[in-house]
């Protein structure tokens, strides 16, 4: 059961690359009865969707860093400053494994950092692990040694 009392986990993916969205959706295929995936293509669209739907927020946000209009860091910063949004679990979803960037996102308040694997089975495993996380015990965010998936 998730934070809204439902057995369906509502996931919002903020990702500008359609190929990455398709892979993400395919990684959820065996859990499609347990998850609902919504997709936004840039940071502005993400923030608009969240602020217009504060009564029906997602259970988890997967957030790409490099997006048009507003990047992932800007979005994360706004989410953490917004009273109705600041408790949302935000998982950074990025190809970069730069330690400085990981540290920057950790300090900005991301809950987890999921480095996009190059193989589909690795992607599927990491997404499933992130979704299975008990966010009630992970708040405000993961210990630094458990931050990167």
Question: Which features would summarize this protein structure in a list?
Answer:
single chain, about 150 residues, alpha/beta, Rossmann fold, 5-stranded parallel beta sheet, 6 helices, globular
Structural Rg:
14 Å
Give the percentage of residues in beta strands.
15-25%
The N- to C-terminal Cα distance equals: 22 Å
Indicate the low-confidence ranges by residue numbers: none
Judged by helices, strands and strand pairing, the structural class is alpha/beta
CATH fold naming: Rossmann fold
Subunit arrangement of the protein: single chain
Secondary structure: helix percent: 25-40%
What does this structure look like?
By secondary structure, the chain is an alpha/beta fold. The protein has helices at residues 18-27, 43-52, 72-81, 99-108, 120-132, 135-138; strands spanning 9-14, 35-40, 60-63, 90-94, 112-115. Helix 1 (18-27) packs across helix 5 and helix 2 (43-52) runs parallel beside helix 3. It has a single domain (9-146), classed as Rossmann fold (3-Layer(aba) Sandwich), CATH 3.40.50.2300. The longest helix is centred in the C-terminal third of the chain and has 13 residues, at 120-132. A five-stranded parallel beta sheet has the order 2-1-3-4-5, sandwiched between helices. The mean pLDDT is 88. It is built from six helices and five strands; from the N terminus they run E-H-E-H-E-H-E-H-E-H-H.
